[in-house]
Records
---
Amino acid sequence: MSVTGVGEFGLIGRVTARLSYGPTCLLGPGDDAALVTAPDGRVAASTDVLVEGRHFRRDWSGARDVGHRAAAANLADIAAMGAAPTALLVALCAPPDLPASWAEELADGLGAEAASVGASVVGGDMSASPTLTVAVTALGDLAGRAPVLRSGARPGDVLALSGRTGWAAAGYTVLSRGFRTPKLLVEAYRRPQVPYRAGPEAAAAGATSMIDVSDGLLADLGHVARASGVALDVRRDAFEVPRQMGDAAQALGVDPYTWILTGGDDHALAATFPAGTELPPGWRPVGAVTDGEGVTVDGRAWEGPAGWDHFR
Amino acid sequence: MSVTGVGEFGLIGRVTARLSYGPTCLLGPGDDAALVTAPDGRVAASTDVLVEGRHFRRDWSGARDVGHRAAAANLADIAAMGAAPTALLVALCAPPDLPASWAEELADGLGAEAASVGASVVGGDMSASPTLTVAVTALGDLAGRAPVLRSGARPGDVLALSGRTGWAAAGYTVLSRGFRTPKLLVEAYRRPQVPYRAGPEAAAAGATSMIDVSDGLLADLGHVARASGVALDVRRDAFEVPRQMGDAAQALGVDPYTWILTGGDDHALAATFPAGTELPPGWRPVGAVTDGEGVTVDGRAWEGPAGWDHFR
């Protein structure tokens, strides 16, 4: 049955019945607003929107996948401040003929990804629209720590990474060439594996700056370099090309480092730490912070394609 | 220049440069997430989405108006919990040919409406989309009070209203018949006048239930009746028909009580109070809570058109 057949309130009922609510959710869907714990006395908040045809395709990703990815994009932003995610709110704009089951499975994916990090889907809104759109807001708690901004990197700091890059971009390239395998790459595109806990752990370890890698490593490091007034240099040999990625790159005629250095949507976390910091689990050094400006790879400008502009 | 011409980051820069940030905003746009005060240790959160052609038309409302209305719809949900709004986050999905000035003026409207109640636009996201869409999330603080839910109305309570109903619906009817006047009604549709402060004041005065009237008074009271397991009766003579509304109703051949009792989008607040409560300023009694179920007008079922389902 379509969302129109079920109706707005019917669909909200079906979706909320599938969700479960963790201890951060004091009041879930069904009233004018939800109520979420904010023990720190401050709340971190971020919004990301996914538009069909631009951020996802229904023939490439199932509804659950889109839910996972929409949640991940937002939860990663919270983690990148050093905060622990507490809640998601979701606005779903659905074409009238969208199967109600698609909305239900989207909620399953959103809920599962949120639950994986102790957060809950606490509220949302639905409307008909010609364009299938999922707008998500994530909330999080800093547990008394200072937020880790993009602007705190200092010359002499170590540049480090938690999580992986290039996998989602490789999966995207595979799909866009009409293939459905290698499964490992396609699945990486469909459901990013985000090192959420690495965010608060980096904050606790004294990270001076941090960012969620969503537009591509070099593009996002560019934000850090600009905000901090420093130069960042990435060591290419800090990144091994995984076998499956290398094989696919060769088959498709792509330099795998284009995926690794400029591919978005894996939601790795990049951070800088004072020299000598013992990096928390899962973090590895990938470069250095120096005086100057801009981002280089092994000391040279990157000549390949750059990051992503959602209007271009 | 269009949003495509300006580019995603250019547009974000233009928009955020126009915003101002009040004391609830600890960190505004420009990092992975914003940071907002939540002194209560809990945060109220609500999301509402506006889709062009469904919730607004660009030939009926200017961008500033849409901003005011999108903000109002969300801020009213926070007020209806008894909370004071602190922040808005906004996802804008824009057709590539949207003038950048439209996005800028939207931000002006969102910011002005938020500022009127002490809140700030603290973050957001932008994407291209075939369908102009504005998804807003509002946050708020309960200042130590219990949230006022839809489920707390008890037989014997007084049903009360703050703010006005029917004005936005009258303006909508005027516009949909091709007229641009009376100005007063059209402006009421374009920019609702929401009694934000009445929400926390009702909570402080002991309101047992509260709701934002967004889908129409009778429809929204239906939510309260169901959630509380009570019947609600509205006195029709508690509502005077304002002269301008009466004149327009006569000219258009509409029963003005259809607007007043079933028209949405003015974002009045409806609440129930224990009998004998001295109602806070701006609240007036409009009916009673009794044993039973459903919503009646002067003891009888309402025969006119019902509320609004966004998929139908």
---
Amino acid sequence: MTDVLHSPSILEVALGDRSYPIHIGPGLLGDPQWLAPHLAGRQVMVVTNETVAPLYLDRLTRGLADDLEVRTLVLPDGEATKTLASVERIWDALLAAGFNRHCTLIALGGGVTGDMVGFAAACYQRGVAFVQVPTTLLAQVDSSVGGKTGVNHPRGKNMIGAFWQPRAVLIDTDTLATLPPRELSAGLAEVVKYGLIRDADFLAWLEAEMPALRGLDVAALTRAIERSCLLKAEIVAEDETEQGVRALLNLGHTFGHAIEAHQGYGQWLHGEAVGAGMLMAAELSCRLGWLTEGDVARARAIVEAAGLPLAAPAEMGVDDFLAIMRLDKKNLDSRLRLILLRALGDACIHDETPPETLAALIEAFPRR
Amino acid sequence: MTDVLHSPSILEVALGDRSYPIHIGPGLLGDPQWLAPHLAGRQVMVVTNETVAPLYLDRLTRGLADDLEVRTLVLPDGEATKTLASVERIWDALLAAGFNRHCTLIALGGGVTGDMVGFAAACYQRGVAFVQVPTTLLAQVDSSVGGKTGVNHPRGKNMIGAFWQPRAVLIDTDTLATLPPRELSAGLAEVVKYGLIRDADFLAWLEAEMPALRGLDVAALTRAIERSCLLKAEIVAEDETEQGVRALLNLGHTFGHAIEAHQGYGQWLHGEAVGAGMLMAAELSCRLGWLTEGDVARARAIVEAAGLPLAAPAEMGVDDFLAIMRLDKKNLDSRLRLILLRALGDACIHDETPPETLAALIEAFPRR
């Protein structure tokens, strides 16, 4: 695997004149060749958070040429900061610096940073360039690719946002060395998701490699990132604005968003909520006669092996779930749309779950 | 002209799968056939302001079918309310009503309403449908067409926004009957602009018809609106996101934005500032040797005939103008880009005005 580790791989998200590369490999931060081609003009603002700044901000800015006008902005960390107020801080900083519409924003951090910076870029002077430099596994395999940007509203997750594609995604696998185990597991939830929705072979590979992944084996992580990004890039290229197949990427997310919203953003990590949510979707798929008990047991085993919760919060009742799920963006008018599994590796969009079946699943699902 | 008045004309903004019609004529409000085809789902929110609501809100909602879930939101009026806080009120109302991403927003009002509602639609759940129902001449001939949406920031006009196209533009010419003379003149500034930048014949027609237009002659206003929308639709179809020719629509706007920002939003109407700004651009074009003194006199005469200011605010010095103009969105890096006139009816983008020439023009321009 040595060659893989020293020659960054390049994938492409094929979106016509908005196509962009995903570079995956070690040592990308601090190496000027990766960022320079994707800057729109001479004005560059790097936005990161208080956790990532001391680790990687200097390394990234070292990779920016001397003739650029570089500003940095460090925001607080955590899902609770993913608000319009944080995005306003970015806009204020851009305007205070006199940045024009040919500037470039660089998002250095996890999914919260990428979503907020992408949204700030989408709406600053009606849209400026941005580059994703994700430093968490979750952001590397999911949120940094595909152009979904936005912030939370007290009434719902990601309710305010835009589709706005980055100019490039730079995934420096070295950054995973500092990732806390809980964040690693949260990222693995989205990796497992790709196997469950679309790639049974990848799922089987993950079952075998999960100990290596959790042990931060770089070769295994690199392969997991590449495969995840490839699957995501394919889906996004097919359906950029989620009119159809892209919705499959939301496996576990409607249940998961309900958990996050009910618990207060940041109590459960997004990936943790998705982990439990995918199991709820798997169990519901079994109740509908699509998955076998054995399939569900496999799903549960890999979620457990990834270090993710297998149960919902103790205090969440059926009504708590349903009330929040009904406002979810993925619902068409009043029908509850869920992503379910016809088989392991084969997801579908389903809006005909009988209400009593859904309520029974939520009622019976383990609590912790 | 009777037929024109009773058979609404239809123009199209040709943008591929985002193409949309502009309907122009009397009696469109309250007639269900114009709105119904452009609604995305059953949830509809009409957003208007305190001035327009008592005049036209009932008439518009009468034109919506009984089986729709219709909400209304009335915001304060005026450019000073074109803020992110107002857009947040729209988002809060949408979420409080449980509106999903298949809802439709209807903007009923002038340019401020249209810009804010369009931006709210662009970012609600990453983008929902909206329809423009402009009730001022300025909004009918300019801001409702072309998908520029956004709000002001204390540091600059329209600094936060998005390109987001409406599903349709419904221009009910009956609404002009209640338009105050000052607002009518402000709208005529943008009408004159089309003649100056692209259509010398239209300019000559406007010179002849200005008394009729200011006298609210419906046939003349309808023709002015149709021609203006046609010219705007052509330019937008050619260059949706202002990479090139669309910038010509900003004739007078860089000077005008400086006046608006310096005076405080809402003190000068946008069209008034554009009127004075177009004269500044014309006089600068003359200093650069492109326009004759006679051309400038014609430009001044038509701006005067439209009832617009011929002078800048007394208290604005050269430095006041330059400081604000340098932050304008239309500037590439540090070069000041201006829209100037090579001839009446032929605008160009110019970024090589010698700073001393610009300063001398601003210094010499009349103050009031």
